[in-house]
Amino acid sequence: MNYKVFIDGKEGTTGLKIFERFEKRNDIEIITIDEDKRKDPVEKAKMINASDFTFLCLPDAAAIESAQLCTNPKTRIIDASTAHRTNPDWAYGFPELGKEFREKIVNSNRVAVPGCYASGSIAICYPLVKSGIMPADYPVVIHAVSGYSGAGKKAIAQYEDPARNPELDSPRLYALTQQHKHLPEIKLISGLAFEPVFNPYVCDYFQGMTVTVGLHSRLLSKKVTAHDVWEMFASHYQGCRFVQVAGFMGEGVLNEQFIPANTLAGTNNMQLFVYGNDDRIMVTTRFDNLGKGASGAAVQCMNIMMGIDEGTGL
Question: Which of 62, 127, 167, 289 is deepest in the core (most CB within 10 A)?
């Protein structure tokens, strides 16, 4: 069966990556809109309602407007923006979190794909809270680094400008007001009582990211060792195709005691590392901010909704 797919916002980074993942698939027919009409609501409504699947790769306000244009009950929408991630009427597109997440994706006509930082953070915090190891009111602090491809077209152009500002040579901390757009979904989906402190850095490399949460064992809900925490994660993600837990302290994955952030660029994979010691337990996720953190996750959700191999095209 061929599915008709419309990508609303195909010109953006995420939209382009989704389009690239469909190039070798023979079960997808891409519906395109004339360039001069791509912001015309009447023409967009035609495209959306003629599709089996519509991807929204837009700013939040535009994504909400486009979703409201859908009147065809058979059209299924996958939103890559922040707009619907905390909306209970939309499935949250992270199937590896648990059976209930996967089932809601399968049965829903509306799926909100997680953000990149949110994917890495929730992959850590949700199992910790669900397992009872970390209390919901734990004072979570998240440190993260990302390649500049996640910052959008304008930032990419700045980084790739030969006459760029020398400050771009170094990692740059941002979200200084602690109002980052991913915080509401991190809190809600993880089951946290409070939004975490969040320190994201954009760095001078193109693609890939790491997200890290540190745990003081004395503040946890029960007495655990670092190895106990590793065992919990290994059990939680056992059998997951795209989320793999590395051996304790990175055994079997790390050749030396460094966790580079760009290793999984170009894939839909996420790796999770548990390390540190029994007093200060560290958990890090590593993945592609344009893969499992954006376009790859969106395509994976579509495959699940289709009822086909979730790795098709990935």
Answer: 289
